[in-house]
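Notes from the pairing session

We agreed to fold both candidates in a single pass and log them together. This is the raw record for the first candidate, unedited. Please don't reformat it; downstream parsing expects exactly this layout.

Candidate A
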Amino acid sequence: MAAVFSFQSYVYRGEGRPLGRSLEEVAPPMIALQGLFFEWDGSLTWANQSEGWQIDGTVYDDGNQVQYVDLHGRIDQPAGVGLLRDRLRDLFSTWGNPDELMLMRLPDRRWQNLQDFEKELLAAGRP
């Protein structure tokens, strides 16, 4: 099935700044998210096939703080766009203040704040 919406982005605090939290600080709240699988190598997967959404990522740190997160996601059903938005909000909040987070959208390397990203995501679910 073709995705209604898919994305790849790097997540930073501001435009290109490290998140300001260590892997040891961001891991426990991620692990607490029901259904999210996190490995200490930085990889994460969160998916629900019956609802048609999936989020995959890798948290990159330098031993002191998280530098950025390489994040991919998709939703296969228009009705699930709001659910994917909610899951992403939950995930973003584990990395710090969502108002400070920025996405570098790939492949065009376009900076986007979370509010504009959500608008694009929700628009994809409209008929």
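Candidate B (folded immediately after A)
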Amino acid sequence: MVSRPRYVASDHTMRFLQSPFSRLVTQPWADALILQGLQKFFFPLSRLWAAAHVAEGSVERFIHEAPIQPPASKVAKIRRLLDVYEHVRLKNEMTEQLWQTYFFGEEEVSEQRLQIIEEMRLDTRTAYLMMRKQFMPLRKYVKSAIALEPPTPEEIEQQYGQPGQLEQCFALPKQRAKVERSRSINVPEGKNYWLRFYSEDMQDMAYARVHEPYGVENPPTLIFGHGIFIEFDHHHNLINEVAALNRMGIRVIRPEAPWHGRRVLPGRFGGERLLSTSPAGLIEFLSSQTKEWANWIAWSRETSSGKVAIGGSSLGAQTAKSVAVRAKDWPEILRPDALYMVTHCTHIAEAALDGALSKIWGLSDALRDKGWNKELARSWLERLDPYGEPVMPPNHIVSVLGSEDTVTPFASGNQHLDLWQVPAVNRFVYQRGHFTVPLGLIRDHEPLLQLWGILNR
């Protein structure tokens, strides 16, 4: 019997989320609370956490990088915090190095040691990420939740303005990157392992965690992208949202997006780089993601004869949409068979410039200060939208939306489904917001069952 690893939620938590009682918390009021929590706590604490990384124990540099103006009485407190932070950060980095050696190294490693080092990785990584809480006494001094440094319109025009320049960013490389597979660990629903390859665009290693079901030969695959700021592979006790798919016999590949998780840049927190340099950040993000996903699709085809679906939640869904349209011009082996989208909208500009989170980020104000107006920024971001028909037929598209979603506006997502002529049977709408829709899917499996039917036809 394989014990439940600590990286997923407890049986008690999962039973609650799968029960009718979970409807009490998967309501729009919870979305409002989550938005308040992000604004008041997550973003300012994340900014302080990121500044501490590059400060390397220096109080002066920390204050500059945050940036904050604390009173002199707080300096001793900051120094103690940075000392603790450096200790926790070093433990995390050393454990990650050992984890890489155990899972990807040449020497054989026992299953027991793999399980131990994976738990150690999550112990130290969780402790490192949760260091955010220690900066609570400094939260009130943070003026900007995101360190915004957008380019000027002239800089964007120079880099992407010539005919074909922007599209060239999305062109697939002539030679695909070699994918390395790690050793595996057993989990209750099957086995888990990691994939990695070198990303030319990001000049780093792209990673994905694979959740493979037991006893299924040539399983269908879902490549599922996460939302912005989500670092699913680096916390203990997360909700196990892929368990149901594994039980259905579907292999799930969960890529780690650029500037998240192992790919976070020094001085940034997960996903911040994407916003702080927009529109350039979104262009770089989506273009690199598109090429990386082509590689995950290719690996899926090479390792199973089952169908391949792409999908995601929020920004992951927008990525999947982009891939679905661009894949029409790709070799047949790279064309996905189905699309599964959770909380999405037609135009990425609607989330970045108009959605509930955009008001917290202050991106529109930062762009204006650099010479942008809202319509000019929108015109650039809309060039990233998935115009045209997707590579898969409408009846192979499954959508999950929340009627109360104000982050990726519900009406916009619905209009896109109309444009793509997605049949009503494949559209699932819940009276929830952006954050409670994914939580509700722990209990409501109808969309997953619809996807299962498509992948097993």
